[in-house]
């Protein structure tokens, strides 16, 4: 099937700074795609190429097969929810939401009907006459969503819309937003630097860094099968282990890490003798119960150096030889945290092998 | 390389403009307008004299002296203007003292009063026979010359530096100072290490504004400069004494060069070094209290200067109602009655001021919008056009207008149109900087949002930008109006019998020794200026907007 | 979009209309029936180097007598001439009035004036009529020494200084720094006073005189009239100025004393028709009117200038012209040597001060 939105080799420069370096991305119709990356990686710039706020030096931006380059923003039908909402401070909620319809010369009754629909959808009924400064941050944000969706267009662009909300509200809105998106079936591009938002809402995540896309994939792929150290490190907490492949047979490899042999099931093609980096998420390691016997090939010996109690888990920092491991232990005991020497048990199914020391950061 | 990129960028942006013919039209119109009414007159003046005429500047000792004198006076007056301006700004913005309203009023008076006339008060009070100097203090002071001119120019032009410095001081968060105290810095270290470095770009900017004004002033030197030869007065006398436009042009160009240098320094050197933008955001904590002796010391100094200024203007006010200026102090209304006989000229002042300010504010707003919001490749040129008239001394602009519009293709001399246009373009930079500051306060994304929702540039300008720029628009309108009503230098070569304005009358009355009538005229002009200011503040105040000049 | 356009358009139109308003509210000039008999109506644009109230008085009376409305600007003689010259390609005014006819010479040579020989000038002394008829003399002024009487009596009389009677009395060192003067290079009146010394003393002695006088001068003002008010208000004690201008300030109530010294110089005040002005026929009416007995009397009464008509009395309070001892002032020579004299004055006197 033809992708609905397509970036082809897009290059964008600001003076000598290359913000986008031959970026290509295909987005299927109805998908929720997140552009994830640290600030300055080009994610907002990429989105702005689609909205038409800036023009690429080269490369094409296509929607439904039509080339968008050169079209001014107001002819692109790509409603955008801004990070700071960008509500018109001199217009009421009603005027803000209906502004696009007014430009469109939508008849009054039709306009009323659609604004009311939005007010209902976003729990804003009764606030029509308020001005933005008379509302809470959460309410303002819902107005911004309503204003973007009222036109019923095919695309929705979201530029870190949740970053100005407090932590708890942010989690609630995530779910709500995803539900509305799925209900409307609207193709959505979401820009964020927050991995939790990306993982929890997206169909597809594109991780960006320095004007490049490092990896495109489902949240599961991004999390458990990161393409390189950068992606692994940026999305979640991670332990990197350097290991040497001892043997590789039938989908399982034996890797030597500081004299400890780990048996890892994998599809990554490796050769014996190769040095690789193992990606180990903190929750893929657990502390063995005292006296528990951990099978060979899954265990490491260590010393607890520090811990942090987070309620649902305890995060331990455990010294293993030269290295320090971060371990999230979900088995929280009422009596407190553990200390001293421990045996670690690795869930080797969830380990991921990065070839070339994981250094293929383009 | 960089220019190649910029060029490519511009070409691409121009292509994009095909989608917005009105925007393109507006850009072209602005370039043509400013080009025709600012650049063209300037070129006419510069090219009027021959190379040989220019050589006179170096051959004739007097003009070289005039150049040196002008630069020297500008230097010392700028230093003193800046010091007084900083004092006022600091006291008003940072100290918890009474009488701030009075101090503010005092900083407005010199801005709203026409040039020329105030010098009369100085002579009366502080001259050889001055009421204060001779009769009260028994001193023999000679104010004609450098010393007197220095004092008068300091008082006349410090308010221009004040408004810049005050804006900067007000926007420096007191939190920064508290942070320094918190780390154990004593008061003077906080001032020296934190406060002063943050103020410095603002102080430099204010100083340069004052410098440009001092450099191009010719009212005060005429009255009080004695034998001191200065460029603006010499240029004026070349025209009125010798009917020599060529030489006048040479001197005007000699004046233009340092003015342009000051202007470039202000806009490109200081501009880049500014840490704080003037956003008008309220500061969060009350300023950290300074020691009592410092506070009341500064207060007394400010009060002293304020009283001095009030005395000068009070004398002018009183003089407007006395029979014989400086001699017979018995009261009379005849001077005021005389002013009302010439209501036509007052009406002209108001009318031209209103139209020029309206036009300037509107044009500047469109210009600022295009420059700020549209990444059009030529926005650097447009930006330059917006601030360019600020580098041109008023008298120079006037001479340029006479030369450029005295004959077809556009023959405007003697009409009201030329008065309005000259004042309009003279006011563009003031309005432009105000509109630019206003636009910077509107988050960039607000306008993006309008475009994103389907509004083209003109719709978003009309629906979003104009309503949000109401306050800066009004403040630039009012400021331009005050400047126009009290302006002499621009119109002095442009007025005709039916287009005479109030400031011209003041000058003519002073020249023919009718000081009482001149004072009365001045009082009426100041009253009009303040009425308009208060009216605008009241109207905006009802909408919850604070108007600061 | 349309709304915006119409808004902009309306604004521009309002602006233009209002700006042009000044022109439309005066009735259009109907100068076509231009008989010089008066009662033509219409208007006349005047650049006046007279005092403003004097100009207003003339305009009011002229309107009463002829029905012609005067639009005027009051400005210094130099500014007026500069304007006429600047506008030569495209004259805006009809009449230049006031200021010494010395000023008119260069403009006449440049072709800025329309020649007109008024029927009313036949009985006047020949020196008031330009042989080429480009300008018409219509008043006379003489130079005087002006003194602030109060200060003089308080400060100089005790030193044994007597009221000055001659030009040479001004060289008394007691006048040092209480005497001011105007700069001849910028003030026409001061040049006439300078030339007066040359005609009185001869070239070399005159320069000695001027340089000695310079020792007393506190500073030089730009305009000839600028010196009067400072002396009137007592800033300074003595100066040289036109008797009529000084007399006028004296009438405001200042303790100003006028002394017309022996061998003083005089000016002939002029008026001229600007060539190609919009209302030339009315301008001729104006010149004729200026020479009438009534107009001359008005001028004497409001400006204290000496009339050119022998049947009009000199201003009350000033000596009659017969009583005044005039230097033998050669106008042609004064004009021809002007540039050289002023250059010398600038180089040897003014430049030492700037």
From TrEMBL, chain A:
Pfam family membership, one: TOBE_2
Highest taxon of the lineage: Bacteria
For the ABC transporter domain, which residue ranges apply? Answer: 5-235
What are the annotated GO cellular component locations? ATP-binding cassette (ABC) transporter complex
This protein's UniProt keywords: ATP-binding, Nucleotide-binding, Transport
GO MF entries:
ABC-type transporter activity; ATP binding; ATP hydrolysis activity
Supply the InterPro entries for this chain. Answer: AAA+_ATPase, ABC_SmlMolc_Importer, ABC_transporter-like_ATP-bd, ABC_transporter-like_CS, Mo/tungstate-bd_C_term_dom, NA-bd_OB-fold, P-loop_NTPase, Transp-assoc_OB_typ2
Name recorded for this polypeptide: ABC transporter ATP-binding protein
* Organism of origin: Dysosmobacter segnis
Automatic annotation (TrEMBL), chain B:
Q: Which residues form a coiled coil?
A: none
Q: Which GO terms describe its cellular component?
A: plasma membrane
Q: Which CDD domains match?
A: TM_PBP2
Record membrane topology: Multi-pass membrane protein
InterPro entries, sorted: MetI-like, MetI-like_sf
Keyword Coiled coil assigned: no
What sequence ranges are listed for the domain ABC transmembrane type-1? Answer: 67-266, 346-536
| Main localization, broad class | membrane
Annotated transmembrane regions: 21-43, 71-93, 105-127, 147-169, 190-215, 247-265, 298-321, 350-370, 382-404, 410-428, 477-498, 518-540
Q: Which Pfam families does UniProt cross-reference here? A: BPD_transp_1
Question: To which protein family does this belong?
Answer: Belongs to the binding-protein-dependent transport system permease family.
Q: Sorted alphabetically, which PANTHER family does this protein's record hold?
A: POLYGALACTURONAN_RHAMNOGALACTURONAN TRANSPORT SYSTEM PERMEASE PROTEIN YTEP, PROTEIN LPLB
Protein name, entry field: Iron ABC transporter permease
From TrEMBL, chain C:
What GO terms describe the biological role, i.e. biological process, of this protein? thiamine transport
What are the record's GO terms for cellular component? outer membrane-bounded periplasmic space
One Gene Ontology molecular-function label: thiamine pyrophosphate binding
Query: InterPro entries of this UniProt entry?
Result: Ferric-bd
Q: Which UniProt keywords apply?
A: Signal
**Residues of the signal peptide:** 1-18
Q: Which PROSITE patterns match?
A: PROKAR_LIPOPROTEIN
Which SUPFAM superfamilies does the annotation name?
Periplasmic binding protein-like II
Q: Which domain of life is it from?
A: Bacteria
Q: What is this protein called?
A: Extracellular solute-binding protein
Q: What is the species of this protein?
A: Dysosmobacter segnis
